[in-house]
């Protein structure tokens, strides 16, 4: 047991120090220089120049407001695609107060392109839409009173009644307490949007980007712009890429999406504003870059597109009444990203220090080549590693191969012989 303890103590109290061995091998020297040059090139080319490792960075903080403009008049009376019996609710003028719902959103705006209008609904009892689940009936027993229709329009009264389709056909469904008449879920035109003119409407996007770390703030409306410029400009990625007014049709064209299908069932579009700024350059060179992409899945099998319902409430002869709209349209999400960089001595020194530490990798690789790859690797091992005993205890030293110098001078080669032997091995390497 004492033997193992002594070994453990000896190992624990050992000390390793570097031994410099100058190896005159062209192979190893070439590997060493190639690795060193590669690391230096990585530090200068990639870290410092491409990644701007000499800069401190900050993420963008952004504020967005939007303003829609555009007016259209729709009349579907003589449209050959008309499906509704009464086109009157759809023959009207549309301005931003009508088709922008809600009027303001956070980093987004919605433009209605298609709709289903149900006029003059009042709280009463009526037959449920036969398209709902478990509402078909033959007797009153099929309609338990007080049970809401799942995903339906109201609560069952307990009666089975007649439902009349817009074309005059009838069927039996459960009677419900609801806003009556219930909506008939059919678009007014077959495969086409009512408000197709939104392709010509425009949106002004006002975006303020801030990099608080550097006390830097800038708008996407260039300071060289004036009121007359904004009245007439429209964004174009080639001819006017800094105009903040975008034509909705141009945004959709940039995504290469089909406008007809998008306007008919709705969808979600992304407007991306990217602020990547090098604040070591002039203030004017920090400008936004715009890109566009559809965000929802246009190939979805079910629940395709984008729609929601809202209502306008009013009194009709003292009775609370509403007009229900199922709005289809395009939700534009505005997504702002970006990063700014500015010279800072601290990241510069940190990256240089980290790069210099990588230079030790060249020594590690060359050691592996010398000790495990070259033909004369055993000779180099003997030269690299030296075991030194405790001198205070009367010990000497041993080479890695086990030859001791203690009192055995005849085992140590002379200077001339050693020089000849090293020259021989250098030629073999």
What is the structure about, briefly put?
This protein is an alpha+beta fold.
Give an overview in words:
- The structure is a single chain.
- The chain has 429 residues and is α+β, with helices and mostly antiparallel strands.
- 25% of the residues lie in helices and 32% in strands.
- The chain has 10 helices and 16 strands.
- The protein has helices at residues 2-12, 26-50, 96-99, 227-232, 248-254, 259-265, 345-358, 360-372, 377-384, 415-428, and strands at residues 55-59, 61-69, 72-74, 92-94, 108-127, 155-164, 170-180, 202-211, 216-219, 245-247, 267-278, 289-294, 307-316, 319-343, 386-388, 397-399.
- The strands form 4 sheets. Strands 1, 5, 6, 7, 11, 12, 13 and 14 form an 8-stranded mixed sheet that branches. Strands 2, 8, 9 and 10 form a 4-stranded antiparallel sheet that branches.
- Helix 2 (26-50) runs antiparallel to helix 7, helix 2 packs antiparallel against helix 8 and helix 8 packs across helix 9 (377-384).
- The radius of gyration is 40 Å and the shape is elongated.
- The relative contact order is 0.15.
- The model is unreliable at 400-429 (pLDDT under 50).
State the secondary-structure class: alpha+beta
Shape: elongated
Helical fraction: 25-40%
For the secondary structure, the number of strands is 16
Largest sheet: 8 strands, mixed
**Beta-strand content estimate:** 25-35%
Keywords:
429 residues, disordered C terminus, alpha+beta, 10 helices, eight-stranded mixed beta sheet, four-stranded antiparallel beta sheet, elongated, 25% helix
């Amino acid at each position: 047991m004492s033997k193992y303890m002594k070994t453990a103590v000896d190992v624990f109290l050992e000390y390793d120090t570097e031994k410099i061995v100058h190896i005159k091998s062209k192979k190893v020297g070439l590997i060493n220089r190639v690795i060193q040059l590669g690391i230096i090139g990585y530090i200068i080319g990639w870290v410092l120049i491409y990644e701007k490792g000499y800069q401190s960075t900050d993420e963008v903080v952004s504020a967005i407001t939007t303003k829609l403009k555009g007016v259209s008049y729709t009349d579907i009376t003589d449209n050959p695609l008309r499906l509704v019996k009464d086109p009157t609710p759809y023959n009207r003028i549309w301005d931003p107060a009508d088709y922008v719902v809600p009027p303001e959103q956070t980093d987004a705006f919605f433009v209605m392109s298609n709709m289903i209008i149900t006029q003059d609904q009042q709280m009463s009892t009526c037959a449920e839409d036969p398209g709902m689940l478990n509402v078909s009936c033959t007797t009153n027993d099929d309609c338990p009173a007080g049970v809401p229709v799942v995903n339906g329009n109201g609560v069952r009264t307990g009666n089975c009644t007649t439902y009349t389709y817009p074309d005059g056909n009838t069927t039996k469904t459960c009677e419900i307490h609801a806003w009556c008449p219930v909506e008939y879920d059919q678009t007014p035109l077959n495969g086409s949007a009512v408000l197709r003119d939104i392709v010509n409407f425009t949106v002004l996007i006002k975006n303020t980007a801030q990099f608080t770390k550097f006390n830097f703030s800038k708008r996407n409306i260039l300071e060289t712009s004036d009121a007359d410029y904004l009245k007439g400009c429209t964004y174009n990625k080639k001819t006017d890429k800094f105009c903040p007014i975008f034509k909705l049709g141009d945004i959709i064209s940039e995504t290469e999406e089909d406008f007809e299908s998008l306007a008919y069932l709705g969808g979600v579009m992304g407007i991306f504003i990217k602020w990547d700024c090098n604040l070591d350059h002039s203030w004017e060179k920090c400008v936004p870059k715009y890109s566009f992409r559809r965000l929802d899945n246009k190939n979805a099998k079910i629940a395709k597109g984008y729609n929601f319902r809202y209502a306008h409430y009013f009194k009709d002869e003292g009775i609370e009444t509403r007009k229900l709209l199922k709005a289809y349209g395009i939700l534009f999400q505005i997504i702002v990203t970006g990063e700014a960089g500015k010279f800072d001595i601290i990241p510069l020194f940190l990256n240089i220090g980290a790069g210099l530490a990588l230079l030790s990798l060249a020594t590690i690789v060359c050691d592996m080549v010398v000790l495990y790859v070259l033909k004369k690797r055993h000779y180099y091992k003997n030269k690299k590693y030296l075991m030194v005993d405790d001198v205070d205890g009367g010990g000497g030293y041993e080479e890695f191969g086990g030859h001791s110098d203690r009192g055995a001078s005849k085992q140590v080669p002379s200077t001339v012989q050693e020089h000849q032997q090293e020259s021989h091995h250098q030629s073999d390497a």
